């Protein structure tokens, strides 16, 4: 099979971990007789520095025209503020911010389903901050809504009554929730048949609509155990009984927070892969963590999250199940052999750099 993959390495550890993913993809291509063509896009802070734009229109079109996008991470808090003409600090507008590179693809391509698996590898139980008995049960997916909600609706920052005031509206339509609900129930049908829809309907009007739509869709999936849970209660249960959950379905901001919580409970953001999927089958695949400026440029980041994201791309967008299984098995083999990056170091583990971990996983395929 031949596939076109747009590659946006981005900022911080983005280029380091994406390079290791491509190394693994090339090993898969060689072993299974595929050809992957890569098309580079410079975006995020790198794009702002190169072109004054976190994602140029022609680069958006290039990404959209490919079969999928392999994405590192964008943003650099060290460069988050600009100095205004009078020397005072000025915060960037959303159009100027690095996150535009990601948001443009998510919104423009309607990649509404952000699939974020979190599970504890038995070999990494000691890397989890949870007690062994609690951690070993953790195996869930957070399905985050990705194209609407508080991140995208009406916004302003202005002076009202002599006081600087900011506002972010949260807006959802019936159809946006309905497509998300179908995706959640379909995912659950292939797993433990349990959907927990997380929200705050006692305080938010959008929460009431989420509940109404989800209840309606749930009727079409009688085999799935469906329930709702308040966001605060869900956060508490994620650390006290993570094994309770199967598919956690959440609107944009709640899903963003819960998925990082679940992945950190699993041991590290460095093992958290994710995919943004739309109805066309194309996707954007990225490690769930950020650009990790604290460890960038040192060749010590964990590439497993980005490599798992590449495996997700093969599985979900290219329907290459055997190939995706081969990558995941190679990761398990490398962990079994005791190899670790610093973030998942366990007693007796053999420490590898980011690039050595990429080599080890490629060789294990
Ligand atoms: P972060 O995920 O970058 O880092 C949080 C912690 O996790 C850090 O200690 C970091 O070292 C560690 N970590 C993350 N990925 C790792 C990996 N692969 N291996 C080892 N350790 C890893 O979150 P942050 O510090 O809040 O954000 C840093 C920047 O990233 C910000 O500019 C933020 O806006 C951006 N960000 C981008 C994305 C994205 O592009 N999708 C997502 C989240 C944050």
Task: Give the arrangement of secondary structure elements.
Layout: E1 2-10, H1 14-32, E2 35-41, H2 45-51, H3 57-65, E3 68-73, E4 82-83, E5 89-90, H4 100-108, E6 113-119, H5 132-135, E7 139-145, E8 155-160, E9 163-168, H6 174-189, E10 194-199, H7 205-218, E11 225-230, H8 231-240, E12 247-250, H9 252-265, E13 273-277, E14 283-287, H10 304-316, H11 321-336, E15 339-340, E16 350-351, H12 354-364
Parallel strand pairs: 1-2, 1-3, 3-14, 7-12, 10-11, 10-12, 15-16
Antiparallel strand pairs: 4-5, 6-7, 6-13, 8-9, 13-14
Helix pairs in contact: 1-10, 1-12, 6-7, 8-9, 10-11, 11-12
The structure holds nicotinamide-adenine-dinucleotide.
The helix/strand class is: alpha/beta
Helical run tally: 12
Strand content is 15-25%
Largest sheet: 10 strands, mixed
Helix content: 25-40%
Family: Belongs to the isocitrate and isopropylmalate dehydrogenases family. LeuB type 1 subfamily.
GO cellular component, one term: cytosol
Catalytic activity: (2R,3S)-3-isopropylmalate + NAD(+) = 4-methyl-2-oxopentanoate + CO2 + NADH
Cofactor: Mn(2+); Mg(2+)
Q: Can you summarize this structure?
A:
With 365 residues, the protein is of the alpha/beta class.
